[in-house]
Write a structure and sequence with these properties.
Oligomer: single chain
CATH architecture: 2-Layer Sandwich
Number of helices: 2
Number of strands: 10
Strand content: 35-45%
Radius of gyration: 16 Å
Structural class: alpha+beta
Order of helices and strands: HEEEEEEHEEEE
CATH superfamily: Myoviridae tail sheath stabiliser
Distance between the termini: 23 Å
Length: 137
């Protein structure tokens, strides 16, 4: 049995998102995923993993067995259309890990940075007994 903390999940998500090969319009983009706040990011495009929220769904002897996690991921880029492709690549990577997208915001233009941003919310169920992610049903 392996319990999963929000820190461990955050680190896992950053690692998995950094594995994505973003080849868009025949250009191989270097897209960094991090835990940083977007106000401090100066490298674009990027993916920002916000702190996950956890809920214990089932525990035995005060030990969490089944947890649900929800996390918001921001995707930033200079170009609106390219941002759409980055979002799609992010979705596909997280779908492969059994995460479900449960919400998204419209693409917003940030006046201060002069960049585009979209935030998506993903959810997953974690089973500590077999250390696996299960789809939300």
């Amino acid at each position: 049995m392996k319990e999963l903390s929000i820190r461990e999940l955050s680190d896992l998500l950053v690692d998995k998102l950094n594995e994505i090969e973003d080849i868009i319009e025949n250009e191989n983009l270097e897209v960094e995923a991090s835990l940083s706040d977007s106000e401090t990011i100066s490298v674009f495009p990027c993916r920002l993993v916000n702190t996950p929220i956890e809920r214990i769904d089932f525990a035995e002897n005060n030990i969490p067995i089944i947890k649900s996690f929800r996390v918001d991921i921001e995707i930033w880029d200079l170009k609106k259309r390219r941002l759409m492709d980055l979002v799609n690549n992010t979705d596909n990577k997280l779908y492969s890990l059994n995460f479900t997208k449960t919400n998204s915001t419209p693409i917003m233009h940030d006046e201060i940075s002069n960049k585009y941003k979209m935030t998506n919310t993903y959810e997953v169920i974690y089973n500590a007994l077999d250390h696996s992610f299960k789809l939300i049903k």
